[in-house]
Amino acid sequence: MDAFIRFTNQTQGRDRLFRATQYTCMLLRYLLEPKADKEEVVMKLKKLESSVSTGRKWFRLGNVVHAVQMIQQSSHATDLVPRICLILASLNRVIYFICDTILFVRSVGLASGINKEKWRMWAARHYYYSLLLSLVRDLYEISLQMEQVAHDRSKKEKSPSQDPLVYSVADEETEWLQSFLLLLFQSLKKHPPLLLDTVKNFCDILNPLDQLGIYKSNPGIIGLGGLVSSIAGIITVAYPQMKLKTR
After folding, report:
1. Shared-domain flag, residues 56 and 69
2. Which of 16, 91, 170, 205 is the most exposed place for a label (fewest CB within 10 A)?
3. TM segments (predicted)?
4. Domain annotation covers residue 158
């Protein structure tokens, strides 16, 4: 209970819970819409989804400052590729949050002259760029982990004490795809934060891909992806050691 209270006391923790609720409603609404006797439930889910989405906008109002801080932190990364990816991703996230704030100002009626569709597309575009750069960083980190696993495995295979049976089995794994998938599995298994970050970014990018018309999805896919991403986000907030660290 204490851990739950600490989690909900954090703005990010509350936002992740609201986000999980929002995408759960979207997924359930998609699954129930074809059923003729579920119109009332679908309408309630739609209203709840809208209310939760509005509540999340309040939590995101201060995220511009956090994104600017991330730019400063990313500049201290020792590896060039993650440093460039993280700085550019954070810059795009800053622009995304600015666009999101402008859309929020319009939604509450403080500035009715704002072109909602234009700013919505700008927000989706920079959110997409941010996630794409984050995925590039994830793929780079995965390649480093796979290289390390392959190096460790080759050392074991060359060891004199290697069991001949195990060595022969390892020799049989010569097919490229099988070897690649094995290395990928072992790399992600040894580095759960990297797995979580990759899954989160991959699921998140489905929404801007749909909004920008790059790859059209249905609300069910977007809802499922958002829910999985939200669960991954909840894990990283509840257990900070599961958050991918900047090297």
Report:
1. no
2. 170
3. 220-239
4. no
Residue type (1 letter), 79: D
pLDDT of residue 165: 46
- Between CA 25 and CA 14 the distance in angstroms is 17
Domain assignment present for residue 156? The answer is no
Q: With a cut of 70, which residues of the chain have pLDDT below it?
A: 1-11, 157-174
The residue assigned the tokens 């990364």 is: 77
3-state secondary structure of 33: coil
pTM for the structure as a whole: 0.84
Q: Which amino acid is at 65?
A: V
How large is the C-alpha radius of gyration of the chain? 22
CB 234 within 8 A of CB 20: yes
Six-digit token string for 108: 């509450």
Answer yes or no: are the C-beta atoms of 230 and 26 closer than 8 Å: no
